Fold this sequence. Notes:
The protein has 55 residues and is mostly helical. The protein is built from 1 helix and no strands. It has one helix at 2-23.
Amino acid sequence: MRKNLLVRMLPLLFALITSAAWAQERTVTGKVTSAEDGSGLPGVNVLVKEQPMVQ
C-alpha cells in the first residue's frame, strides 16, 4: 500500500520540482536607482507585477 502511494506521488513531486526550477530561468537586466538622487541601489530584489511568487 505504501509503495503504491509512493509510485503515484512521485510523478507529481517531480512535476512540481521541475516547474519551480523552470520558472527561475528568466534573466532580468538593468539598474535599480534611488528616486531621491538617482544613485544605484546594491543588493535589491526585483519582482514582476502580477506574477505569482514561487518559493
